[in-house]
Known about the structure:
By secondary structure, the protein is of the alpha/beta class. The protein is about 45% helix and about 10% strand. A hairpin with a 2-residue loop joins strand 1 and strand 2. Helix 3 crosses helix 4. About 50% of the residues are buried.
Amino acid sequence: MHxxxxxxxxxxxxxxxxxxxxxxxxxxxRNEKGSKLEVAxxxxxxxxxxxxxxERLAYWIVKLxxxxxxxxxxxxxxxxxxxxxxxLVRRGISNVLEGIGYYGVQRxxxxxxxxxxxxxxxxxxxxxxxxxxxxxxxxPAPDELTTEEAKKAIDEFAEAGVVALSFSGGEPLMxxxxxxxxxxxxxxxxxxxxxxNGTLITEKIAQKMKDAGVQxxxxxxxxxxxxxxxxxxxxxAWRRSVEGIKNCVKVGxxxxxxxxxxxxxxxxxxxxxxxxxxxxxxxxxxxxxxxxVSRGKEIISQDLTPKEREELLDFLxxxxxxxxxxLDTFSTAPQYAxxxxxxxxxxxxxxxxxxxxxxxxLQGRTKSLTEFIGGCGAGRLYCGMEPNGDIEPCVFIPxxxxxxxxxxxxDIWRNSPVLKKIRNRDAFKGCGECEYKNxxxxxxxxxxxxxxxxxxxxxxxxxxxxxxxxxxxxxxx
Length: 477
């Protein structure tokens, strides 16, 4: 049984009737040990847990739900227990179900705490990329979290129920304490990934990343050598990044290649995907939405048209469902979920959090799950954190909603007026009137970058083409 199937089945079981939803709210309420739900799941898989009276009652409720759920979906108890032994699966289920208990059933759903936090670990970087949202440079920011503050933040994330941490930057590997902090997060049973330019990854560094508990490395490659080096601002960057990818693959790290789609590299992307699959042997190719923020504002004219983006997403999805292709091909554009939906019998695509095996288990559940996951996850499923601890809805939305030095993550997540605004899709201009609003919702970062409005339209969609015409007319006058 695949973990994605387990999460989907468990959620479906809990949502079966109003009584189970009320029980869920009680079971998922947190105390000093976490939630009773987490304790019950540990007990279910045989971990030695001493339970209070309330926790014992919660355990029997959870046991009944899981036993019934496994029977309904034709899964043996042994298979269920084996999957739930994975602490990431338990934490993921708890986060989703606790979110339903707190917020109620939503389309799309908001989790109890961010499922994923993208952590800009430092502003320091050895490249000078044209599109950098962090405006990174050769020196770190003076107010970055110390090592101890970083560990304290991780403790709080664990307490809140966060599942995954992605270290980004700047270039995260330039911080001397990266391996210490990454290992600390891995030891706390987070899914740990790193987004890096790859230029510093020798075989020794790749092995050190793996030993520290990094489970996924995502390395940027924005075209072939000439295009990449021009885009990244440093001659020789492409060759070093390619070596970094090869070194990660060599030591057995799950490795992906990320590219930001612009007019600089659009025509190269099909051949680049083939190169990643057949020459670099990475497992994932993810195309990032271009967001004209920070330094990216200087190249706003290089953004794709709605038609170009739609054709690119069609290409990526055709690769994803091609049984002869060994590469998982994704995009952070929330319109990718609409692309998957339009393939009547195709799998759902939750942007950022998936792989091909997960897609196969979701076959036939496209509409319900795409509405549950909801495309753009900013402020609902994930958030960003700046090097100084500022929490943002997304790393591409430079709006401070709190700071981890000053407030608890859960309080920020539940009480921020900005996050509440992002979650109200009915109020979105253009996107809120669309039949796909619960599946996609438009990229909130692009709405903010183009219209200075979190509830504005995403002009990169063919359905919103009138807004694209509006912004391009402004740019040319």
